[in-house]
Amino acid sequence: MSSRSFLEYRAMFALDDRDLDGVSLDCAGGASGFVAEAGAMGVRALAADPLYAHGAAVLAERLSGDLEQGNAMISANADRFVWGWYGSAERRREMRLRARSAFVADIHRRPGAYLAARLPHLPLADGSVDLVLCSHLLFTWADRLDQEWHRAAIMEMSRVSRREVRIFPLVRMGDGEPVPFLDALRADLRAEGLRCAVREVPYEFQRGARHMLTVAKRH
C-alpha cells in the first residue's frame, strides 16, 4: 500500500481548487492521505480499495513494511526515477510518512469514507461523485490487467462520475514503457460515448510518467 499525499495528488492530476468542488473519489486509494488531508481542508472525498475490508488495525500494522519495500524497490531501480519534483529522497519519505499517519488516523475516525471495493465494480450509484482519481493502478499493472479489464474499469468509474475521471500514469511499472493498447482502448471508450484526452501534468517521478488520461461523458 502506497501513502501518497494530497500535494502529490494535486500535481499528478493537475488539480486546481475548481476541480475539487463537489465530491472526489480516490480509486483505488490504498493508504493515500488524499481523503484525510482533503477532509481537513473542507474538501469532500471518499476512497475505494479492496484492502479496506481488512480493517483499520490490520492496515496500520502492515504499512511500515510496505513503505520500506517501496523504498527498496526505488533504490534498486534508481535509473527509472527522477527527483526534480520532490527535491530529495528524504523529502519524499517525509511526505509519505505524513500521508500515512493522516490515513491511519482518518480511517479510524471516519471509516465510512473508505469503501471496501474492487474495480470494475463500485458500490456507488450512477453519478454519485463528481471526480474520480485513479493513481498507479490502471496502466501501471498492464502486464497483469488486460485491455478488456481496463475498459470495464474505466466504464465503471465513468458511471459513478458526474464530471470526469483522471488516471495517472500511462506507463507500465516494470519497464516504464507506454501501454501498447492505449490507442485501441481510447477508441473503445469513444465508441461507448466517452471523451478521452491525454494531458501533461506538473509531476514526474517514474521516468517518462508525466501524462494522465482524462475521460468524461459526452453532453
Automatic annotation (TrEMBL):
Keywords: Methyltransferase, Transferase. InterPro entries: Methyltransf_11. GO terms for molecular function: methyltransferase activity. GO terms for biological process: methylation. Residues 108-163 form the Methyltransferase type domain. It comes from the Bacteria. This is Methyltransferase domain-containing protein. The lineage of its organism: Bacteria, Bacillati, Actinomycetota, Actinomycetes, Streptosporangiales.
